[in-house]
Design goal:
The protein is an alpha+beta fold. The chain folds into three domains: 293 residues, FAD/NAD(P)-binding domain (3-Layer(bba) Sandwich); 142 residues, Succinate dehydrogenase/fumarate reductase flavoprotein, catalytic domain (Flavocytochrome C3, Chain A, domain 1, Alpha-Beta Complex); 106 residues, Methane Monooxygenase Hydroxylase, Chain G, domain 1, CATH 1.20.58.100. It has 16 helices and 22 strands. The strands form six sheets. Strands 1, 2, 6, 7, 8, 9 and 16 form a seven-stranded mixed sheet that branches. A hairpin with a 5-residue loop joins strand 8 and strand 9. The termini are far apart. Bound molecules: flavin-adenine dinucleotide (FAD). Flavin-adenine dinucleotide binds next to helix 1, strand 2, helix 4, strand 7 and helix 5.
Length: 611
Amino acid sequence: MNEIVTHEHDVVVIGAGGAGLRAAIEASRAGVSVAMICKSMLGKAHTVMAEGGAAAALANKDPRDTWQTHFRDTMKGGKYLGDWRMAQIHAQQAPNRIRELERWGAVFDRTPKGVTSQRNFGGHTYPRLAHIGDATGLELIRTLQQKGIHMGMDVYMEFTVRRLFKTDGRISGCFAYNRNDGSLHVFKAKTIVLATGGITRCWEVCSGSWEYTGEGHALAYWVGAEMGDMEFVQFHPTGMIWPPSVKGILVTEGVRGEGGVLRNAEGKRFMFDYIPEMYADEFADTEEEALAWVDEVISGKLATHRRPPELLTRDVVAKAINSERAAGRASEHGGVYLDISWRDAEEVKKKLPGMHHQFKELANVDITTDPMEVGPTAHYVMGGVRVDPYSQETSVPGLYAAGEVATGMHGANRLGGNSLSDLIVFGKIAGEQASEAANDMNYFADIEQLEIDDVVAETLSPLQREGGENPANVVSNLREMMQEKVGIIRTGSLLGESLSDLDALEVRAANTSPGGIRTYNPGWHQALELSAMIDVSRMCALAAHRREESRGAHTRADYPHTDDSHWGKSTSVISMGEDGSMDIGYASYPEIPEELRSLLDADDLHEGDRE
Ligand SMILES: Cc1cc2nc3c(=O)[nH]c(=O)nc-3n(C[C@H](O)[C@H](O)[C@H](O)COP(=O)(O)OP(=O)(O)OC[C@H]3O[C@@H](n4cnc5c(N)ncnc54)[C@H](O)[C@@H]3O)c2cc1C
């Protein structure tokens, strides 16, 4: 039963979402042998859930759009913490990656003139999101998958990777087990691309699927890679909140992009009260002006008015909803109301078919006639594995990362739509670079047998434990704790407590008993995932505890100000110390060149504290 099957592939891609598929396509094109490993079935990756669209300055809906404006919006939305090099590459290359998807068969919605339609989203100056109704991820995955499987890659579905191996300081392979039959596998590889997505299952209320347990983040950390900006976890402002069984499921920002308005229990359109100074020039501060903008957009004219405040960035809207709740103005079930029913019912059904269906089926609400009840939900992690912006290589030679598992571009807050375009821009670069490096090697490095024995023993150990706790209990206690202590509004004392709680949860996790069977045993998978969930949660809590300011998605009630003089220049870096401790330090990106700096808003770049 402990037989180990060994595989050899020049490039191993871990993860079959948009980033992994795009990387695998590029690596296969280069003629190397490619393996794609994924925890679930091909086609099920989290990317398939993406709704609103992919951001790219195609300038189809508004000819004023340029990559420079997209770059500026991304840097501003990220509160100037992001890596300007990645934001530049992304803004410049996203349009071609979208056109490429179209050539490969993706059927985007069209404008009356027949070009790719684009919709408005939070923090984007112009309509910029290429979309397919509100099911963009499905079409993206379908297209990439169709392209990918014809390129000859080997796909290992329902395999969980549990460890990455290094030989002489360079990546040499990984260990995985098959989730169905429990078989054990070693993959020897010349290079590995990590594309494992996000971590939001560590929070009780989240928009992610069961796959989002942060294993990729943990795998990179355990093998010695540097992790960046882990304190920045995005709470999307609009998740479903009622009935309880659907709490957290996403309500796309596309609803607000199509004119949806937010109201509190008193019927007040409260977002006018929450426009930050840095956005004052761009957002309407009266209902009349917001309506004038919507009228222009609906009638296909170029917008001349300032945008409605519902289209502020997600960090701002989520905190505003939180404040309304705290002030006792919450909706019936503790959120706020999102209303698109004022628009023509047929238009709503055409533009937002998924939302219409979702609310009808899950909440018995017809969004063409009634408002939705919504509240914040953990949605995306800006932090992740630090990469070189030009190659996507991590600090571990031979290990590349792309997509949500990587960090840099989004800074302190990601703009909606910038993830799907991130996946295809940086997935391509990672695949290109990983295959080039693999082509330069003419051997597979040996993997230490002791290391293999160690991970096999660790993987099988939960099956041998008896009388311990059910792993599902520990998972739910972890998620509740993170929701309460490492949520939208944080304090030093709660964060300190969360770190102690994680130590206690780690002890419990080491004693769980999922039963002794290897085949089809979901308890065993959970017992194994816990080690990653705990370390990833610890990274978030530690980085949040240390960052003594509020910026983007990280809000400290005890440090409410944004501190540009110090923290604005410091991106957190977590790595494993020699003794296995979790160490934290800080780094800065290179100085931004003048021609790019001049694209940013001069007023935002002043030194010193600011609200
Ligand atoms: C409901 C929802 C709607 C969204 N809408 C949008 C949108 O409209 N626009 C936008 O830009 N962004 C959107 N996002 C965000 C975006 O979808 C994600 O950030 C993005 O899809 C992540 O892609 P990825 O390729 O990095 O990872 P994923 O698509 O999550 O894929 C990860 C892959 O890694 C595999 N994996 C993970 N761990 C392991 C392991 N240990 N071993 C083996 N395999 C593993 C998984 O099985 C999976 O195949 C949305 C997110 C959600 C939840």
